[in-house]
């Protein structure tokens, strides 16, 4: 790896934590992590992730909000070789409740990161987008060549706006930009607001879980180590401006997903079937042919193996994860 100092935003977040840990353990690099440690979900989990990273001598942490330009430009005073921008306000449904948080964090925060790259002459930025940009598209699998003009949540709007901003900064200033559309990432130290984590907690507590759309909705669940491998491949890839899908390329029906959780947790779920929220889509399904071609990447972890790993971790840490 040719980069010596890498800035990772959202370093105490789910993907940011796993990526930073991998970089610190396996490569001769320094990582500067930025996170605002928001309370969108329990800060306890973010603090635990960050405590692990702080054990590495070549990790420096900055607690700040990316939307605060003055603090950002004043705090990042080192020479940065590469930015991996993963920090964002996550969650599709929460964007219906608090849309302002998404514009501030995802759009203003991303603008500030791109402007930081321009002013500090950083020639390469890898940034997180989302499968949510495909919105109400009917054609599957979702390809990067598809038009994405029908978002069904403000979260998706902000992620598409990030892609358009990235193109502008590439066109005007020559910054190499790679946007990565993640597909339903899951795994250890994951987000407690996501279905697999919420379901696991409620199953262990003997509480009912709500299953949308009769359990027929399908998601392209992608294990976090596969996502990290894709980002590492992106770091070493040569590109100008690109958008690429990182997904498992195998959509899984929600009913099957729940049956795996029941098997691995050793308990039967109490199920309540409810209508699909309007902001949710029927299926996500990644066409990964471009990732194979551009990054020489493809997923390795099946949903069966990945969920087993998550459930083993969940049960081993039940004493504190149950309170998240």
From TrEMBL:
Which residue ranges does the record assign to the NAD-dependent epimerase/dehydratase domain? 6-247
Domain of life, per UniProt, equals: Archaea
This protein is called what? NAD-dependent epimerase/dehydratase domain-containing protein
- Listed Pfam families: Epimerase
Keyword RNA-binding among record annotations: no
Give the species this sequence originates from: Thermococcus camini
Read off the InterPro entries from this record: Epimerase_deHydtase, NAD(P)-bd_dom_sf
**Assigned keywords, A-Z:** NAD
């Amino acid at each position: 790896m040719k980069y010596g100092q890498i800035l990772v935003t959202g370093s105490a977040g789910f993907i940011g934590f796993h990526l930073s840990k991998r970089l610190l353990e396996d490569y001769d690099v320094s990582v500067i992590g930025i996170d605002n440690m928001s309370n969108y979900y329990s800060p306890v989990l973010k603090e635990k992730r960050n405590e692990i990273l702080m054990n590495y001598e070549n990790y420096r942490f900055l607690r700040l909000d990316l939307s605060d330009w003055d603090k950002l430009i004043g705090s990042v005073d080192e020479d940065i070789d590469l930015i991996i921008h993963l920090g964002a306000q996550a969650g599709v449904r929460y964007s219906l409740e608090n849309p302002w948080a998404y514009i501030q964090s995802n759009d203003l925060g991303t603008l500030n990161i791109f402007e930081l790259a321009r002013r500090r002459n950083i020639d390469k930025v890898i940034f997180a987008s989302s499968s949510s940009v495909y919105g109400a598209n009917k054609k599957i699998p979702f390809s990067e060549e598809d038009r994405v003009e029908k978002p069904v949540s403000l979260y998706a709007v902000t992620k598409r706006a990030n892609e358009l901003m990235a193109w502008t900064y590439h066109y005007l200033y020559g910054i190499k930009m790679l946007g990565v559309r993640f597909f339903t990432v899951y795994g250890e130290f994951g987000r407690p607001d996501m279905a697999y984590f919420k379901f696991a907690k409620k199953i262990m507590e003997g509480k009912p879980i709500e299953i949308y759309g009769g359990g027929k909705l399908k998601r392209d669940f992608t294990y976090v180590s596969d996502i990290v491998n894709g980002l590492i491949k992106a770091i070493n890839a040569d590109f100008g401006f690109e958008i690429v899908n990182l997904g498992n390329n195998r959509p899984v029906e929600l009913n099957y997903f729940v049956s795996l959780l029941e098997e691995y947790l050793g308990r039967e779920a109490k199920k309540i079937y409810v209508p699909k929220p309007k902001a949710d889509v029927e299926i996500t399904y990644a066409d990964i042919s471009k990732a194979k071609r551009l990054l020489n990447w493809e997923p390795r972890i099946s949903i069966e193996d990945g969920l087993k790993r998550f459930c083993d971790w969940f049960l081993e840490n039940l004493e504190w994860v149950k309170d998240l």
